[in-house]
Amino acid sequence: MKWSFIIQQKLIASLLLTGIMLLIILSTIISRSNIRDIDKSFSSIYSDRLVPATGIVYLSENLYDKRLLLEKHLLAGQGSSSADVRRQLRLHDQRIDSLVRAFEKTFLVAEESRSLREFKVWTRAYATLEQDILRLSDAGDPGAGNRLFDAESADVFRLAIGRLNDLTRIQSVVGSELVRESRSESSVFNLISLLQISVAVVIGAIVMGLIHNSKMINQDNRPYHFN
Hints:
Elements: H1 2-76, H2 82-104, H3 110-138, H4 142-150, H5 152-221
């Protein structure tokens, strides 16, 4: 009877150890998945949010440089070389195109894609207006060029800058969402780790109790010696 009790205790201990082993394997798989998700989120924050945010700054800078370059040319009048202005504008346009292509290679949410498409439309429209202003200036009609610069081109310029502002806002919102997701994954990872420790302690205590009971039974089985 005692031997059957010992075997039963050992069987329970084996089952408990098997259970904790399976729990550790399962929680390890879940933890590795959480770690991958956290790593993916942080990589996305850098590659798809911080880097494009820097690109937005450079896009804005190039647009303002183009605006100032054309304004200086108009203020200088006939003494300024339009050929040199056109060359510098082309350089800025090439930088803008390069920055936009790099931006398009990152992960974009639907709203970002729409804002970026609109930005491309307005920057092309603005570049066309720049050439119109230069042609008017070369034709000896700087007044018409100034009016176009102050009216229609100013409106198009503001629309292009507005799309950049939209992209900046979206970058901030999506970045915040990624941070929240990372914190959530981190909380799950911490919870799983705490659960592992708690279950290990509880099962360890149960196993130790079973071992202690087995020792007590073994002691009871020893024969008594009388003097």
